[in-house]
Each structure stands twice: as C-alpha cells, then as structure tokens.
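Students often ask why we bother encoding 3D structure as a string. The short answer is that it lets us treat folding as translation between two languages. Here is a chain of 451 residues written in the first language.
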Amino acid sequence: MLEKLLNYLDNKNIIILGFGKEGESTYRFLRKHFPEMKLTIADKNTKLLENHLELLEDEFVEVVLGEDYLKDLDAFDLIIKAPGISLKDINVEPFVNKITSQLELFLEYVDVYSIGITGTKGKSTTSSLMYKVLFDQGKSTFLVGNIGEPIFNEIEDFKKDSIPVIELSSHALEFVHRSTNIAFLIDIYEEHLDHYKSLAKYVEAKFNVAKYQNDDDYLLYNYDNKLMNEYGFKYKEHDIAVSLDTIPERENKVYIKDDFIYFNEDKMMDIHEPMNLKGIHNINNIMFILGVCKILNLDIERAIESIKEFKPLEHRMEFVGNVDGIDFYNDSIATIPESTIDAIEAIGNINTIIVGGNDRGIPLVSLIDYLKKSAIENIICLPKTGEYIRDGLEGSNKNVVFTEELKEAVRISKEVTKKNMVCLLSPAASSYGYFKNFEERGKLFKQYVLE
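And here it is in the second language, the structure alphabet:
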C-alpha cells in the first residue's frame, strides 16, 4: 500500500517545516521507514528541544530553531510543511515546487478513495458526521487531517477499500496540487487574513480542494455562498450544488423544498426531524452528507438515523449546564461574525452574549448591526475586538460591559442574565494572543461557569 510513497521519499534531502502535531507525525513516520535518513527539522520555537529530547539522541537529524528557521529552504529536495506555517512574508518562487505535505503525499502516492471537507465554518462537525455515517454502515473509514489524527498516524492501516475522511483547513490546501475524490466546499467567509497576503489568496486555497479533481470525481459546493460566487470556480458538469432553496438551473443538486431535503427529484429527509444538531447551518452541513450518501449508494434510512444520533462536538454550541436558572452554552469555535450569528439563531432565548478576541482585521459591522436589532440585552466584550463591538453599540439600548478577563465576564454574566434564559460564549474572533487555542478558551469558560 505504501510502496510508491516510500520509493518516492527514499534518498531525498528532506526538511520538516514545523514541529507541532503533524510535524512530529511526519518525523516518526520517516524515521520508522528510514532509520538513517538525514533529516532537518525547522521551527520558530526556540524551546522545542526541551519537550522533544529524543531529537537530541538522533544522530541523523539537524534542528534549526528561531526567527531564521525559514532560511535556505531551497537547499532541500523536499519541504514537508505543516499547515500552520505561513510563508506569506517570504518569496517562495525559488522552491515552491519542492513544498509538499502529508496531504499531498498521501493523495499522490496512496491509492484509496478519499473524501476531503473544507469550509470556513462547519468543517469539523461535517467531517465527524461523515465519518460516523460511513462507520455506521460498516465502511473502513478514518477521520484524519485538521481533526482526528494526522494522516501519517493512520496511513499504515488504510486498506484498498478504506475511505478516509479528511478535514482540510485552507492552510493544508494552500500548496497542494492534488484533490480528493469527493470534495466538500461548505462555505467561504473572510477568515485567516493574518495567514494570507489577500482574501483572494485565501479563497484560492479553499478552491484547491477540488481544483485538481479528475472527471470522475465529485465536488459538492455551497450554491448560495456570496464569496464563492464572486470569485468563481469552474465546476464540472456532474458536480453537486447545495442550496437552502430550489435551484432550477442546476441538474445535480441538493436543496430544500416544503421543509424536505431533496437530491434532484428524490425526497430524502424532513428538516424538522428530532436531532441533537441545531440550526439551519447544520441542516446545510447535513445536505452535503446526504449528497455523498447518494454518490456512494449508502443506505439513506440508516444514514438519517446516524445523523439524528450525532451529538455536537465540544466547543460548538455546547450546552455547559444550568447554573442558578441560567443555561450556559460554549461556542468558543466561533471565530467569525457569521458563526456567532448562526449560534444565536440556532440556540435562541439568549439574554447575554460574551464576544471578543484576537483582531485579525475581519469586519464586524454585520455582527454589530445584528446585535443592535436582536433581543439580546447584555453584551459582554473582551479584548481586542470587543472594544470595536462596544464602540459600535454606543447609543444602543443594550447593557454593554467591557472586561479584560474571561473569568470576570462569566462572573458578570451570572449577575445580569435573567433566569430561564441563556448566556452564550460565542466570541466571533480567534483566541490567539489570549489563549493557546479556542479549545483552551472553551475549557476555561466551562470551568468558570461550573465553579
């Protein structure tokens, strides 16, 4: 199964760029199959070796750390880049053809049918749900990529009939020249503008999920998405449009009519089925899943049961608990205004919302206007974007409070939120600079709520 991949990697002068979860996975995979291969590891973290003493014992590895870790990349035959490493501030032209990744190596050299899922929001839930639907139907499937395990951690267990489900961030897609057999492009909104030179480059990276597909492959795409329509993409004739409305001009489509999800003329699922996933955005995600069920000829009734059983992931509109008559929800994953608006619509009965985080230049006007018109009474703002939201709400009839600390925000929320109503953490901003990641932010929120 891995023969072609290992033959390609053999005798290459390789640098592993970035030594987080995926970089470490790449190192262990290469070292297992090439015990004496000369490897270079490059990372900005100058304290990396303190937590990876095994690298000091590896006589065939060289480690480059610090601000200059991106220098001299052209000296290598192959640059295996981790998704989180941004190259926007350096000229990659001299070595761009040497840049690869676990994703691209897998797609190029391992012959299994794959499903790749990307989007600004919703990709983790959709990937996890797609995996559950396949698993429940007895398929050999793996959940890898941005969620689950790095591809190289699971690749040796793939069989000819395996169907890996790969959650794909824009970072993972940025330099790839291969696409999965089935691709989801759930949506695109302004996001990660700190990683790219322009919004156009971010959109271009997302389109790579299907850019290199063959004629027999499928793309399922969000027909309603404004940015995708503005930037355009050359869809194949049998690609499947997904819309919350009818699509008269498309032959292959998943859409809603009379509160039912349809695939072309086939009625598939009542959108009011009792299930754990809430909100129209999750109905949209489910439509992608049902489209794949048709492509792969899965048992639709069993798939619907899997969908109904599926529970939301941690930090995604997660019910934390009822404390003194107040329902607390953790939606720390919400890093853009659209996600926060979706959460408000889905959960309902919200009296207090906690917003704000790292400023990446994403416009907040739509969220501010929405909050002004909403029934939400208390808006607790955290730095840095919370300052702009606070200023934008000046003169409104809202109780707007600014605080520097999440713990204090929770304390205030317990004082001001009405009984039998909801307090929602949905920051509409990333966590970086204030927390390690959105998971840490969400875990601390839950801890403070329950203390």
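Translate back mentally: The two ends are 51 Å apart (CA to CA). Keep this in mind for the problem set.
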